[in-house]
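look at this fold:
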Amino acid sequence: MKQYFITDQGKVREHNEDAGGIFRNAENQVLSVVADGMGGHKAGDVASQMVIHHFQQEWPKTTSLTTKEETEEWLTNSIKDINQKVYDHAQENKECAGMGTTVVAAIFSCDFVSIAHIGDSRCYLYHDQTLRQVTEDHSLVNELVRSGQISKEDAEFHPRKNVLMRALGTDKNAEPDVRSEEWKEKDRILICSDGLSNKVSDKEFNEYLQKDDSLDQIGKQLVNLANDRGGEDNITITLSEYETVREGDPSC
């Protein structure tokens, strides 16, 4: 499996509240994570980094996950654990009051990828030459779209576009949405913070992900595109591509 990770401060923010990474466990399985922090002076940095540190510490200890059920369970339990830690830290440290973060975490197996998320960071799957957003934003405008009160086009320019209905660490009992998707040779997975998805359309994502360029070239091109269009927010991306199974590599 090929992977690429990049995070960029953007052109306006004074510091980067995003975090992310790509990690392997003892069985060589891959975990890809993006978190977009928020709340308080530098508290967003704290929340997103706590998420990444948790996965970075726990994933290498994990033995091979072979079924969708056990993979989804691991993701759910892990996100609940780190949600409790972020929530407790915010309660115990006045300067971090109200902090939280989005999270998207994906675990890759040979015939499926399991994805868990909270917030409006996104996961896209390029499968059978078609792009599809596989996460659904936990945001106010998405709820308005779902209920038919506004159109998807109106949502792009709504004044409360950045209001989240669910975030990690802001609620003691926050629950992730978890699902598994089939994936196969030449499929690609894009996970990103809204610093990218607010600047690039689904049509454009499809155009970039179908390129023959390497993942690092595509990732850098997307970051440059978001910055060229204003770069008002931090931008974080993980890209993964399915390769032919090699013996002894459960991650493909």
Notes: Helices lie at 43-58, 68-92, 140-146, 152-155, 194-197, 202-209, 215-228. The mean pLDDT is 92. The first helix runs from residue 43 to 58.
